[in-house]
Amino acid sequence: MTMSSDLTLAHRLADTAGDVIRPLFRAAFAHEAKADASPVTEADRAAEAAMRRLLDAEAPRDGIIGEEFGAERPDAARQWVLDPIDGTVSFMAGRPIFGTLIALLQDGWPVLGIIDQPISGERWAGALGQPTLFNGKLARTRTCRDLADAALATTGPQYFADHDAEHFMALAAKTAHKRLIFGGDCYNYGLLASGHVDLVVEAGLKLHDFAALVPIVEGAGGTMCDWNGDPLNADSAGHVIALGDPARLEDVIEGLACSH
Asked: What is the value of pTM for the model shown?
């Protein structure tokens, strides 16, 4: 398959998930806690199941890694990574800042990504070697002259282990910390790709949480890496930096290396 056909399929996957999710938003739906105490709803499971059916029909040799139903064909060189609702807590609260994440890995490296917000109709699409598009138009990150000017976002302090939280707060103290943004999950990365946020830092992410974000951020002019500055792939531990202006990367890594 070509990158163009892969992107077409990714958009169809996003459309398919959105068709399942929208009728359940701010409606009655079943939900429960998973083994790690995180919530899962019938919308998460139904949306992933629908995307899997489409992939089985259109790309039967490709592997699938999904948040809700695990891995199929794990030895395939091409792997579709699905997170039907990244930000289930926001979805359950009726906040339209969750998103469907769709990634394609080639030999463990992210080469294509979609962030789709099915309620507001916002979609970011990125692919290796191509510019990121937001609803079909070019998306670009913004420059950041100094780390002290950076608007920093993260999903929430409760997702950091104690040691990681100390390093995050040390970095936050060096940014425009009065503008620190909590909440947003994948939506923050879309905002970064469109030039509204400068920096997103998180820890403990799974592959399905970050794989789709890499081509989107990098195709918009930003950079993504782990807390050591290494590129993200299927073996990454989940300590993630997304930065709109790559010129500030050394400052960010230095800030994270500090602790109270």
From this structure: 0.95
pLDDT beneath 70: ranges in the chain: 1, 259-260
- Quote the pLDDT of residue 259: 56
Distances (CA, A) of 31 to 17, 47, 66, 87, 239: 17, 14, 18, 14, 28
- How many whole angstroms separate alpha carbon 18 and alpha carbon 223? 28
- Counting other chains too, the contacts that 82-85 makes at CB distance below 8 Å and 24 or more residues apart are 82/13, 82/48, 82/51, 82/52, 82/208, 83/186, 83/208, 83/209, 83/212, 84/17, 84/21, 84/43, 84/44, 84/45, 84/47, 84/48, 84/51, 85/21, 85/41, 85/43, 85/44, 85/47
